[in-house]
Write a structure and sequence with these properties.
This protein has six helices and ten strands. The chain is α+β, with helices and mostly antiparallel strands. Strand 5 and strand 6 form a beta hairpin. The longest helix is centred in the N-terminal third of the chain and has 19 residues. It starts with a helix and ends in a 9-residue tail after the last strand.
Length: 237
């Protein structure tokens, strides 16, 4: 009886070893193995500690002009203003609200085929005409369409549709408005602290971004590559 249990145990260990070695098929993508762990670990040798003079120079660097936005409505940019006060301790007057008109967008479209085979045939025709169609939902329409070109004016879209009809024999093209003209809201921060260029907040969107026409600002050292000299070096995980 003990001999049988020993054989079962040896067989189970052999199967486990074969599975771990990958002999019984590929392992799942989400499973960690040693090479991936080594590649994903933090590299302390890449840290560059700033000495006291460098850290002080960064702290005393002149403030920079930065833009936040675009925001869809008043509530969104007011939330961004609140974050400026809480995250950067900026007093009111260090930023201003700006609006920018955004032109409408017009598309040259082909109707989406309901049948899969017909859709593939239509895509093939458009691609042979050196177009790259992609599915879009046009406002006010219940079914999607294939977008082949996008323009900032109705006239340009109509001219392109006519050109494609004449030169590529694409007779079923039409023109429709993809987005009406609208006003974008931005916040221009005139004195963003240089030492907080890496600061982020969900209400700021992709910002902060350099102000248009403000020139190229000196970049702050990445958080993963620089730290004040007084901080203790991080250890590898």
């Amino acid at each position: 009886m003990m001999r049988a249990w020993l054989l079962v145990l040896l067989l189970a260990n052999g199967l486990l070893w074969a599975w771990g070695a990958g002999w019984l098929g590929p392992r799942s993508q989400g499973e960690q193995r040693e090479p991936e762990r080594l590649a994903a670990q933090f590299h302390p040798e890449r840290l560059k500690l700033l000495d006291a003079a460098q850290a002080e120079a960064l702290r005393r660097a002149p403030p920079l002009c930065r833009m936040l936005g675009p925001f869809a409505d008043e509530a969104a940019w007011q939330a961004a203003e609140a974050a400026l006060r809480s995250e950067l301790n900026l007093p009111v007057g260090q930023w201003r609200h700006e609006t920018r008109p955004q032109a409408a967008q017009w598309g040259v479209l082909s109707r989406m085929a309901a049948d899969t085979a017909d859709l593939e045939r239509k895509r093939g025709v458009l691609e042979r005409a050196q177009l790259k169609p992609r599915g879009v939902n046009v406002p006010g329409e219940s079914s999607p369409s294939l977008l082949v070109a996008r323009f900032d004016s109705e006239e340009a879209a109509k001219a392109e549709a006519e050109r494609l009809r004449e030169t590529k024999n694409l007779r079923a093209l039409r023109v429709a408005e993809l987005r009406p003209s609208q006003t974008q809201h931005w916040l221009r921060v005139s004195a963003w602290p240089a030492e907080k260029l890496m600061a982020k907040h969900p209400s700021w969107g992709p910002g902060p971004m350099a102000c248009p026409g403000a020139g190229v600002a000196p970049a702050a050292p990445p958080a993963s590559e620089a730290a004040p000299a007084a901080a203790a070096p991080a250890s590898a995980t």
